[in-house]
């Protein structure tokens, strides 16, 4: 049985003055994960575990822009977990398929099971999302925040760099205001399609809200898991009149407000 110090505190575990004296005699409480091994510990056994039973851990990293299904497949292989059980645990605990996990590097105890891993990742991410929301919006409202994460996920998929995010955000905001279809390939890189090149056949056949060539507005749910920078750009777009962009030969986006210029930019980018 594994517990992090933070989770022990959430469970109502508090140390009194006598415990503190005993701990000073035994050693010092360790940071990170503690391997308690069982629930029915005596007080002395529990205090001893705090100082000696630090669990061996792996680190796992969720990259901004990655989809949850791809991430779960990767960590199942890395931690020798059952991929199907991991996905099932996520589906049972999560209220949406994407956008709930915060890209970061996590320290995970070896031999953790699928349900406890998902529980930990979702709890850690939920707390971070609340902090992000309070910082960017001054409060946290679940439905409004999910809409913002959805917008940020499109920015995350489309931006060429962190610096480019406010510009991409401006185009999305401007197109939404004009009720224009976003028509962005990045929205079709959802779920298992994360690393696939978007094709004309996919655009024709995909009938989900992720297909922004057919569907007006944002997708019904986030496309991927997003960074704080993408969330910040969603709240603070660059003030422009741009409606179009294309990636130029140097990898940077070229922006314009006019379709005729955009067409020329596409031609120049493919020369």
Task: State the strand order across the main sheet.
Answer: 1-2
Question: How many structural units, i.e. domains?
Answer: 3
Q: Using the CA coordinates, give the radius of gyration.
A: 23 Å
Please indicate the percent range of residues in DSSP E strands (runs of 2 or more). 5-15%
Number of strands: 6
* Helicity, as a percent range: 40-55%
How many separate helices?
11
Q: Tell me the quaternary state.
A: single chain
Which sequence of SSEs, written as H and E, runs from N to C?
EHHEHEHHEHHHHHEEH
* Shape, principal axes of CA atoms: globular
Poorly predicted runs are 1-9
The main β sheet shows up as: 2 strands, antiparallel
Which short descriptors sum up this protein?
271 residues, mainly alpha, 3 domains, two-stranded antiparallel sheet
Report on the architecture of this protein.
By secondary structure, the chain is mainly α. It folds into three domains: 2-52, no CATH class; 57-137, no CATH class; 151-270, no CATH class. Helices cover 47% and strands 9% of the residues. The chain has helices at 5-10, 17-26, 43-52, 68-78, 83-93, 114-137, 142-158, 165-177, 200-205, 228-235, 259-270; strands spanning 2-4, 33-35, 57-61, 105-109, 244-247, 253-256. The chain has a two-stranded antiparallel sheet. Helix 2 packs across helix 3 and helix 5 (83-93) packs across helix 6 (114-137). The model is unreliable at 1-9 (pLDDT under 50).
